[in-house]
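Morning!

This is the sequence you dropped in the shared folder:
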Amino acid sequence: MIRAPLGPVMLDVAGTRLTDEDRTRLSHPLVGGVILFQRNYDSPEQIAALNADIRALRAPELLIAVDQEGGRVQRFRAGYTPIPPMAELGALWDVDRAAACDRAEKAGFVIATELTASGVDFSFAPVLDIGYGSSRVIGDRAFHRDPEAVSELAAALIAGLARGGAGAVGKHFPGHGFAAEDSHVAIPVDPRPLSAIRAADLSPYRRLRGELAGVMPAHVIYPEVDPMPAGFSRVWLQQVLRREIGFEGVIFSDDLSMEAAAVAGDIVARANTALAAGCDMVLVCNRPEAADALLAHLAWHADAAREERVARLRARAAHSSLAQARADPAYQLARNAFEPQARPSVASRAPRDARS
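The structure's back. C-alpha cells below.
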C-alpha cells in the first residue's frame, strides 16, 4: 500500500477490474482520484468490488467519483434507480414548486445512498447551467431557464445528496447553457459580457457557494472576460469564483482530454495551466498514454489547505452495501418516487440529446 498525500490528478480505469497498468498509474503519488464510466460498471456487486480494490491501493484512499446526474448521464444503470433528467424537475416546478423541490431532494438522496453504499464518494452533480435551449450537450440536463428555479432545485438536490452521505460538485462554471458547441469535440464560445453572465448564470453559484463541496468549470471561452476557457482562467477561478463569489471548496478541471482543452497545449501544459489558474484537481480521461505523460512530467507540491478541501469530499456512507441500503425505509420511500407509476406526467423543458 502506498502512503502519500492525494495528488492533483484524477484518472479513469480500463474496465470492470483493475489491470496491472491501472494499479501502476493509481499508485503514482500524483494521483488523487478515480472517475468511473459506464464501461466500468456491470452490477452493484462488481462495482463495489472494483471500488474496494481501488481503495486498497493507497492511504489515504483515493477519491472515487462518477457522473450520476440522472437522465442520459447516469453511468450505473442496471440495479440502480433510474433518475429522470433534471429538466423534468424543472417542468414540475412550473406546476408545483414544493413538489418539485421534494422530488429533487429525494433524487439526491437516492443517488448518494446508492453510490456511497457501493464505495463511490460523490457524483459530479448537480448541473447548474441555465437551460437557455441553445446547448444540445446540456439540453435536458439543466433544471430550468429561470436561475431562481435552478438555484432552488439544485439546493434541494444537494440537501438530498448530503442526507445520503455525499458532497455535491456543481458544473459547469460559470455556465455552459448559452454556448451551442459541445466542448468534447469543439471549442464553445459564449460572447456575452460579464454583466449578463453575472446576472443569470452566476446566481446558482452565489446561492449555493457554502453548500457545494466542489465546482467544475466549463471548457468554454468567454472572450469578453478572458481569451482562455474558464477552467484555465485566473480571472474566472480566482477573481470571480474564489474572491467575488467566495467559494472555498474544491475546483476540478473538466476532462483535459476534451477538444476544447487543446487551446492550452499538450497534456502537461493543460494540467499546469489549469492548476496555476486555481484548479485543485485535474481530470484526464480515456487517454492512458496522455495520463502516463502527465504523471511522468508534472511538477507539483502538496498544499495543506488543498488537502483539507479535498478531504471534505470523502463520502459518509450509512450502508456497507446496496443490499443493505435497500432495507432502509427512508431509502425505500425516496426510491418509490421514481417508480414508473409514480412519475408525474410533465414534459421536459429542454431538447433530449443522444450523447452521454
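Headline: Residues 5 and 60 are 7 Å apart (CA to CA).

More detail when I'm at my desk.
O.
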